[in-house]
Each structure stands twice: as C-alpha cells, then as structure tokens.
From TrEMBL:
GO terms for biological process: 'de novo' IMP biosynthetic process. InterPro entries: SAICAR_synt/ADE2_N (IPR028923), SAICAR_synth (IPR001636), SAICAR_synthetase_CS (IPR018236). Signal peptide: none annotated. It comes from the Bacteria. Transmembrane segments: none annotated. This is Phosphoribosylaminoimidazole-succinocarboxamide synthase. Belongs to the SAICAR synthetase family. Residues 15-270 form the SAICAR synthetase/ADE2 N-terminal domain. GO terms for molecular function: ATP binding; phosphoribosylaminoimidazolesuccinocarboxamide synthase activity. It comes from Flaviflexus ciconiae. Pathway: Purine metabolism; IMP biosynthesis via de novo pathway; 5-amino-1-(5-phospho-D-ribosyl)imidazole-4-carboxamide from 5-amino-1-(5-phospho-D-ribosyl)imidazole-4-carboxylate: step 1/2.
Amino acid sequence: MTKTPYENLRGWTHLTSGKVRDLYAPADLSAHSGRDALLIVASDRISAFDHVLPSPIPDKGRILTSMTLWWFDQLSDVTANHFVSVEVPETVKGRSMITERLQMVPIECVVRGYIAGSGLAEYRETGSICGVELPEGLEECDELPEPIFTPAAKAQVGEHDENITFEEVKDRVGTGTALQLREKSIALYTRAREIAKEKGVILADTKFEFGYRLQPGEKELILADEILTPDSSRFWDASIYEPGKPQPSLDKQFIRDWLTSEESDWDQDSAPPELPADIVDKTRERYILAYERLTGRTWKK
C-alpha cells in the first residue's frame, strides 16, 4: 500500500487506508457534538485489477471529492447520504469530507445499463450477469432493455471482489436489506443516467455502497463513500457512441486498457508497473473532462 502523507492531521486519528481513501476518527468526540464521525480523505492513488498502482494521478482525489459532493446534492431527494461537512483540516481541504460513521453493508451495489467489461465476459459465457438472464445476441456496449442490479461481495484490499447473485445477497445480509439495496441502487442509477444524458454523457454502469447509522434500531440505508466518479463508473461520450465495439472512455478504463496492452507487459499477478508520463497525463485529462462535462463547472487547476 502506498503510504499516505496525511497520517498526522491535528484532531484526527488515522484508522485505516483503502486502495484510494484514508479514514480518520476524531480524537475528541466533543468536537463533533458527540456524534460518530469520519474524515474521509481521497488520495491521488489509483487502482486497477485489485492492485494499487505505483503512479498517482495528480488532482485525482480532489476531482473524486468534488464530483461526489456534486452528485450527493443532485440525488439528495432519492436517498439520504452520509455527508456532514467540508470543514476539514487545511492540509486535506478539497480532497476530503466529514461524514457520518456507518455500519457498512459489505456489498458492492453495481448497476448496469449497458453491457461492457466483466459483465460482457460473463454474458458471453453464461447468457446472464450475476444470475440475471439477458436476451440473446447482445453485442459489446449495447444498451440493456432495463438497468440490472449485479452485486459483488466486497473484498479486502488486494483481494478480488466476488460477483454474486441477488439470492446470495439475501443470504448474506437478509431479504429486507437486499431488497432495499437493489431498489435504492437502481433508483440512483436511473436518476443519474438521466442527468448525465442531459450533459451528453452515457452512464454505462456504476456502483454504490450503503450503510446503517450506528444508533440502535436504525433501519434506513444511507448512501456512502464516493459516488458516480470516473473511479466507480463507466462514462462514454454520447456524441460518438457506437455499440458493437469498445467505447472511448471518460474514466479509468483508459488505465486498464494500457495495463492489458503489450506495451505494459504486465501479468496482473506481480507488482504493477509504473505508468508512463503520457498515460498519467491523459488519465488526468479524462477525469477533468468527466467532471466538467457532468457538473458544468470549470476545473480549478
């Protein structure tokens, strides 16, 4: 794991680091009115194929945080989220937020509106994705008849998330929670897809995470973590969309494509290679373009 430079933030104690984000707890609960709180810092690290790459993408953490906050605002009427404040230490301003601390549900809530990536590979092998039967004859990047919920069991850092069926979700977290996860995820995706469409962007697929508030008896699922960013979503330019082949992306698929090319010559088991400078620059450009196209704002360098 790449070392985080933010391990000594005044008033916060480092809890853990994931592939991209670093989590901190308040050193003094009274500073947050006694509420359970987390400081979530989005680093410039980037991961692919369950590996954290050695080359950071400049400004990536700031872009992810800004996009997540924008989407939280757009979707606040669809479901509650864990955002509290951006009154954060100066060192991490712009790339962090204070949130409610939740009991996270260990399910990656993936929703697909188009067939691509690992979903395409599974469809070609079985005719379905995560147990959801699909029509015959679908081609790469075709739009699906309707959005589908294709969950995964969340893995530890360095391990692979496991695609599972909806029945397996019910077995793991209970029928009531599973139904809520599916309903909320599809509702969020459907609204976000319409917003993106208005901006000339196709939201092909994305993933969400949810948790419960820590108060006893709490039953409402709360949207958490990052949402609808180039790290967690597949974005395509609607003006050049052409099904039947891979689409130019506004997300980290660009990194995946390079890592699976002959140029990188990486086996996905050994330590990942350094990214060439032009790949880093072009990835950053794609993240900024996604931010600007979707939010309508100019990225402040």
